[in-house]
Amino acid sequence: MVKVKLLKKNFLLFYPIRYFNNWIQFIKGTFIFKIKLDIKKYLYNNKKFISNIINKEIYLLKKKKASIKNRGDISYTNKKPFKQKGTGNARAGSFKSPIWRGGGVIFGPKPTLFKFKLNNKILKISKILLFFNKRNNILIIKLSNKFPFINYNLFYHIKIQLLNLGISLTSKILFINATYYNFNLFNIKIINIFKILTSDLLFNDYIIIFI
Fold first, then answer.
1. Which of 126, 129, 142, 172 is the most buried (most CB within 10 A)?
2. Ranges 13-27, 123-137, 170-184: which has the least confidence
3. Does the keyword Plastid apply (predicted)?
């Protein structure tokens, strides 16, 4: 059996910076990704590494948050509605009873409690692996404050720029750090750079970063 000895390697990914007016033209200068990977540990032994993180993230996003108030949660008086005997009615001990109008709810939903820990180091490594996997489909675009946004139709402008680059609108595109624009584009997800999930990087075909 041949032992493969692979140490930690540093990768430098160089990307040209593009104008927002014309995504084909380049600005003088490059955008550099500095990636540090332990190839032996993560690239060859990550069969369930990313899938476990994505499953936990999806569970956190879809966990049940609906909640009802039972008879112990209702803020109401503890006074007995009427005396125990002599009225002819069924005995009642509280206005909070589920039988009464305005009382508590039984068998309703409650928020689920799920305790687990996602280490920041593991999250960072998973995102680095996915960025390295999508390295051929990353675009860096420079935004300018002097750009006349009012005179342009953003949907039409971005549509033309994507078609000029040979990117079809049916493909899934992830926009990073562009949450302050009101894009209404099909199959395009806009997300802040501080709120990127591993599932966003995995399930999108192209990544466009505004700087």
1. 126
2. 170-184
3. no
Strand, coil or helix: what is 156? helix
Closest to 182 measured CA to CA, from 206, 152, 146, 137: 152
Sign for the CA dihedral angle at 88, 91, 95, 96 comes to: negative
Q: Please report the domains of the chain, with CATH numbers, ordered by start residue.
A: 8-62+117-210 (3.40.1370.10), 64-113 (no CATH)
Q: What local confidence, expressed as pLDDT, does residue 70 receive? A: 92
Cβ atoms of residues 163 and 206 within 8 Å: no
Count of CB atoms within 10 A of residue 146's CB? 4
**Token pair belonging to 129:** 């692996």
The burial class, CB within 10 Å (0-12 / 13-18 / 19+), for 129 is buried
Token representation of residue 69: 């108030």
| pLDDT recorded at residue 94 | 92
| H/E element, 147 | none
User: How far, in Å, CA of 143 to CA of 101, rounded?
Assistant: 59
Q: Which amino acid is at 51?
A: S
Pairwise CA distance, residues 126 & 151, whole Å = 41
Mapped onto helix, strand or coil, the DSSP state of residue 138 is: strand
